[in-house]
Amino acid sequence: MATMESLIGLVNRIQRACTVLGDHGGGGEGMSLWEALPSVAVVGGQSSGKSSVLESVVGRDFLPRGSGIVTRRPLVLQLHKTDKGQTEYAEFLHAPKKRFTEFASVRREIEEETDRITGKSKKISNIPIQLSIYSPNVVNLTLIDLPGLTKVAVEGQPETIVEDIENMVRSYVEKPNCIILAISPANQDIATSDAIKLAREVDPTGERTFGVLTKLDLMDKGTNAVDVLEGRSYRLQHPWVGIVNRSQADINKNVDMIVARRKEREYFETSPEYGHLARKMGSEYLAKLLSQHLETVIRQRIPSIIALINKTIDELNAELDRIGRPIAVDSGAQLYTILEMCRAFDRIFKEHLDGGRPGGDRIYGVFDHQLPAALKKLPFDRHLSLKNVQKVVSEADGYQPHLIAPEQGYRRLIDGSISYFKGPAEACVDAVHFVLKELVRKSIAETEELKRFPTLQSDIAAASNEALERFREESRKTVLRLVDMESSYLTVEFFRKLHLEPEKNTNPSGPNADRLNSDRPNADRYADNHFRKIGSNVSAYIGMVCDTMKNSLPKAVVYCQVREAKRSLLNHFYAQVGRKEKEKLGGMLDEDPQLMERRTAIAKRLELYKSARDEIDSVAWK
Q1: pLDDT confidence bin for 501, thresholds 50/70/90
Q2: CA distance 60 to 275
Q3: What do you get for the CA distance between the two ends of the chain, in Å?
Q4: Torsion angles phi and psi, residue 447, rounded to 5
Q5: Across residues 130-147, what is the average pLDDT?
Q6: pLDDT by residue (tens digit) across 74-104?
Q7: Phi/psi at 263 (nearest 5 deg)?
Q8: What order of strands is seen across the sheet that includes strand 178-185?
Q9: % helix / strand / coil in the chain, to the nearest 5?
């Protein structure tokens, strides 16, 4: 089996790596690896002796001191046991290349780093300070020193300070893998202990709570804390531990922590009240107790930790696949990548047109709604009004009025009417062009593979829009040809039928027919009814042409624009890309810097989790 030092030391290294990579929880949906790994949170009221306990465990005087709130940011303290004879030193995560061998400098750095975030005020911040201490005189352990709980705000503090501190402490101790080190002063009633009160709320069974009594040497004469230490006053699942910290006089004299530990041992061994508990009292025993318990908890959590690691590795691999793996540097691979991106875009674009994705139906809407509505609004009533028909026919006749039917007048009226179809025809082309451009934009946005290459996105968009412009111009020419075709050759049969119908209806028959017909003056030919009939005939013919336009214009637009967009949207672009040099290909694959940073961060996390899994497997079951 693995030794306690190797297993806890491994957890410390993994937690530190998680912190470096920012993988330490903080509101995500799932539990982070940092949160899954057990740690010890030190909780207590102000001036309960928290800092002294930590210094006793470390064996060094390194924490800021003073009255009021001294700890204003969480301090994540990782202890790493080194071989005997090695120099003790400390490192801060915010200054990773700097080693501190003088622990007075560590205190100053904590104060300065605290002020950097909170200023010189008495405000607090939940941004932790990360400190690692390497020493042969410590056990492998992670301790989190939290601001002391308080009941009232003092001058210079915000009114919400009491609630703010409690919420910050709760955010750590309510996690199921957090071991609570509840510090209570022995010279106060345990029933009023802030630490015990909070621990009872988040850990009602006491399975995660270790009780620590400080200031045993400061109790009133004739009183003792035996009932608390033996679990009669308040029972916990784990034994209470008594601590005797350095006195203020010892601190002022800079009494060495090693000497202070010896004095602490002597106090318990010679105490008539606590002598029988001496071997289970003191800061050295507390450190070993916590380390042993931490090792036990880690072993119990190994299956769930490994499961979390495997789940996260799968998620990170999926995320890398989604945003794309790194691109090879050779031109062949770059060209292949570009073409693959183009094909992915083209596939989505076709899905929009064919109905697999929304958007293509808008083209049908142009044909089924916009085109008929535009044709209906054409000003045929004005063009074929009685006054305009008379004017056009008269102008077409010139000095010689027509003899039978005003053919030139008919042609001019028909040509003028048919010319109105050009507007809706071009509008139909433009409307479909707009839909296709919008589908290009949507397809680029929906192509996941393209999201990492903003330059390539722009190039594909430009090439697609350029092609759509060519298709639009060809479509515009085609629909205008269709309109011109209707003017270039009129349907003769339509007018022959019209010519026969009036003769049947207007020539009277019977015995007086010859006389009635001979009595009709030539002026009747120019009567209003005659021009109304001409207008009506032209209107009927234009109605037939309109029906033809409704059917032929969509066919021309689809053939010239939609069909070509599906067949050859990027053909010209492919030819251009194939002729580009390596440098230009690489330029097309320039990625969004934020995406590159995200990929790098995911790759580092992936490496961390794989390394953690391998190390936990190798260490846990030795």
Answers
A1: low
A2: 26
A3: 5
A4: -85, 100
A5: 87
A6: 998 888 888 888 899 999 988 888 999 998 8
A7: -65, -40
A8: 95-100, 89-92, 129-135, 75-81, 141-145, 39-44, 178-185, 209-214, 241-242
A9: 60, 10, 30
Judge if pTM exceeds 0.70: no
Say how many C-beta atoms besides its own lie within 10 A of residue 434's C-beta: 14
Distance, C-alpha 323 to centroid of its chain: 12
Residue 553 has pLDDT above 90, yes or no: yes
CB 217 within 8 A of CB 243: no
Q: Give the span between the Cα atoms of 237 and 87, in whole angstroms.
A: 38
Q: How far is it, in rounded angstroms, from Cα 431 to Cα 441?
A: 16
DSSP string, 342-355: HHHHHHHHHHHHHT
Q: Which two tokens stand for residue 510?
A: 């019977």
Which residues, listed in sequence order, are joined to residue 40 by a DSSP beta bridge?
A: 143, 179
Spell out a b/e string for 581-594, using b for 16 or more CB atoms within 10 Å of the CB, else e.
eeeebeebbebeee
Q: Across all residues in the chain, what is the average pLDDT?
A: 84
Instruction: State the pLDDT confidence band at 189, using cuts at 50, 70 and 90.
Output: confident
Element (H or E) spanning 96, and its range? strand 95-100
Round to whole Å and give the CA distance between 215 and 211. 14
DSSP 377-388: TS-HHHHTSHHH
Q: Are 138 and 57 a contacting pair, CB within 8 Å?
A: yes
The first and second tokens of residue 544, run together, are 């037939």
Any idea which residue has 């909070």 for tokens? 198
Judge contact between 603 and 474, C-beta under 8 A. Answer: no
* Amino acid (one-letter) located at 111: E
State pLDDT tens for residues 144-184. 999 888 877 776 677 888 888 899 999 899 988 889 999 99
Residues forming beta bridges with residue 80, ordered by sequence position: 134
Count CB atoms within 10 A of the CB of residue 359.
Answer: 17
Helices 50-58 and 257-270 sit at what angle, rounded to 10 degrees? 110
